[in-house]
Specification:
Number of helices: 9
Helix content: 40-55%
GO biological process, one term: DNA repair
Keywords: 4Fe-4S, DNA damage, DNA repair, Hydrolase, Iron, Iron-sulfur, Metal-binding
Structural class: alpha/beta
Order of helices and strands: HHEEHHEHEHHEEHH
Shape: globular
Largest sheet: 6 strands, mixed
Bound molecules: iron/sulfur cluster, uracil
Strand content: 5-15%
Catalytic activity: Hydrolyzes single-stranded DNA or mismatched double-stranded DNA and polynucleotides, releasing free uracil
Pfam families: UDG
Distance between the termini: 24 Å
Protein name: Type-4 uracil-DNA glycosylase
Amino acid sequence: MKKLEEKIKSCKKCPLGMLRTNAVPGNGSYDAKIMFVGEAPGYWEDQKGLPFVGRAGKVLDELLAEIGLKRENVYITNIVKCRPPNNRDPSEDEIKACSPYLDRQIDIIRPKIIVPLGRHSMSYILKKFGFEVEPISKIHGRTFEARTLFGKIIIMPMYHPAVALYKPQLKEELRKDFKKLREILDNV
Ligand code: SF4
Ligand code: URA
């Protein structure tokens, strides 16, 4: 993983590599049972080289704390490892260039549970494991069981924590989904 992280830090496979301050490979435990996969680094992530350290990160920390988890118990990363200008959505080409890194991270960590945060991440992860993509409003908090060479992975898409900043009712949905995540975690 360390080698992979070094490779990501110097990657220039897509144009975002020219625009970033720091690439954000991911952080947390390499033995984590849960992987959280966000979308792409924002301003603070780009400044610090760490995932979810801005306002959305505060929400994520709060949700983790509510179910008794710390960052060092989980692994947190994004589908795209460099910040898109003005925080625009990552393009299809950027996702295509960058996602092999995420695929490799999943193979190394072998998580029991993957939580895609937001619709881009949900869409990538569900397609990767052969599931049909549906609107996040419909499938957040639902579980999908993927079979892999190293066993079963439970996929549980959730809203992106950034939505909780401007839609309080979605924060409640996130809270409920996290409670459900706690129950699943206790049984894997
Ligand atoms: Fe490389 Fe991904 Fe950064 Fe593009 S976004 S330069 S593919 S690490
Ligand atoms: N939003 C994301 O999707 N990822 C981060 O790392 C920060 C904000």
